[in-house]
Amino acid sequence: MALRCLIFLIVVLLTTAVMVAQQLGAGAYVAELGATDPDEARHFVTALMVADHAAAGFPAAGAFSADYGLHAPQALPLARLTLFHGLAGGWLMLFTPTTPAALLLPAVLAALLVVSAGWATARAAGVLPAVAVGFVLAALPLLREASFVLGLDLPLALFTLLSALAFGRHMRRGTSASAALFAAVGAVSVLMAPAGAVVLLLPPLAALMGRRLDVMGRARVLVPLAGLALLALAVALAAGRLPPVVTAEGPAQIWQTLRAVFGTLPLACAVAGIVFTVFDGWRRDEDAVDPAVLAPVAALLPAFALAFGLGVGRGVALDAVVLLAPVVMLAAFGAMRLIGLVVSGWGTIRELAVALMLLLAAMPGLLQQVRKGAIGMDAAAEAFLARDAAPPVIVVAGDGRGEAALGAAIAQRDRARRSFVVDASRLPAATPEELLAALDAIGAAALAVEARETGAMPASRVAQATVTAFPDRFRAIGAFPRADGRGEVVLYAVSRAAPASSDPAPVLRRLSAPSQP
């Protein structure tokens, strides 16, 4: 057992090195946190808040969070905090709040997901298909994109898969230790992200697929399920996010994303893998693969289909990350069984054929370039912090990604929280005159305006009109281009019409906080 754990850790470290190399090649270390997804900036700033709260000796959480949100509006409220923010906060305390250190966490999570999926596949489909499963997962553009972003998608994918594997272990062994393992991993999944509650569906679905309904009648399963249900309900009530009515839009969108990621052949093999899993479970053939191996993994597909139908997720392609590992594992198993219908014996040749099929299917994705380009907000944050501005209030006008990226960049560099970041979308200003009055009211020292070739965003449009209408009040400090050359961020110093308050906090507190998605 110790040797297997050591080998597992070595493979994880090697895979992490591959993920880090992919991050480096994609430009993730020079791009802003939040450049491609505003939620990334929110998770990073919230993790910083958790780390700073611990470093300050755990003062009153409510007051600390309110003050932190005043400086960095991207920080999530206490009710929205998850176990992931605690994990990320501890990670930033262990290392440093730099971009490479922050992105090392998703690289490790992605490596754990890849190796865990391949390790579990070896039992059902053989060693060679298992190696191919790991390679395919690491090469998929969607997983690479998720590994470039500090977010909830990868931890949710990892811990729901581990929950499925833990329940499969309990189906095979039926011991108190295996039941406790499932309860522990399931609790981590529920606390890690709101959608982690799907682990509640794994036992009944897996028992039905594997024709092991007797498992559901045991106290060793029912007691952990009841505990997980209470935990999931408490998390949902605390966050105020109960799922709405069931719709078909979520599952349809995820299916379209999976078709775009995998293509027809791997998905057809995955469907065959589900069919053979159910067939083996209900046939109870001694020569068939134990249904406990893949039945819980196959149960993840309908479980997440229901979750997405309930409105869980953000409605973006990265939602499908949670299904990548189950689909590839089932595709390997399905391909092995389909070939076995034609050829009996020749186990190694069949494994080679399946591995070759999976590798060929992954080649287009491997050749697809995934980039995370800088949008200029990091340079604007450095230029702003280099000035001796008092009071240090900066207003940022752009889209959601731009505003979030600047907030994260300043929070990352201004650990003493001397600066105040204000999103222009928070200001009740629809005209240049109203925006100028709002800037004077909060004592803004600088204005960062995001401009893109694809067209100005509403907030930046008003900001640009204000600069044009009142040129004597704004002085350009610098222009910072996007990595793709399709826009720039212009930083302006704002001259004050009257002396500003030495403490802008009271005025900023009166601003209505933006609604968090």
From TrEMBL:
Statement: the UniProt record of this protein carries the keyword Calcium: no
Transmembrane regions listed in the UniProt entry: 101-120, 127-143, 149-167, 179-201, 221-239, 260-279, 291-313, 320-343, 349-367
The UniProt record lists the keyword Transmembrane: yes
Sequence segments annotated as region (Disordered): 498-517
UniProt KW keywords: Membrane, Transmembrane, Transmembrane helix
Protein name: Glycosyltransferase RgtA/B/C/D-like domain-containing protein
Phylogenetic lineage: Bacteria, Pseudomonadati, Pseudomonadota, Alphaproteobacteria, Hyphomicrobiales
